[in-house]
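JOB MANIFEST
job_type = single_chain_structure
chain_count = 1
residues = 127
[input]
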Amino acid sequence: MTYEEVQKFLGETSDGLPGDIFKSLNGGIILAPETKLHPQSIGNDLVINGEYHFEPYGLGRYIVLYYGSLIRSFGRMPMERQKLKIKEVLYHELTHHLEHMAGDKTLEKKDAADLNAYKQKRTGRDE
């Protein structure tokens, strides 16, 4: 998918969701062009596809999806599969937003456990 196709798909997907999901997401959803490596990546094999941000004294609440990371992760898949995976990333970040608003850290804890499992698999030890 091209950058423009992903941008259009994200807009269409977002438009189909209830407006309450976007409450206080004042910075919206941003599609950044770059590939973003995870800072704890081992061998540059772990990218960040999306991030939820909360900056109380800056831009507020917003989501960034990284086009380069999405294409690196899903670009070789058939188009419909790419769309499904990109939608999953968007929903994941929206879940972070909703949980943050509710003071819940369930998904944050799952992400940390997934990162630990990745590191254990790559290094053979717990961190």
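[summary]
The radius of gyration is 15 Å.
Residues 21 and 80 are 24 Å apart (CA to CA).
exit_status = 0
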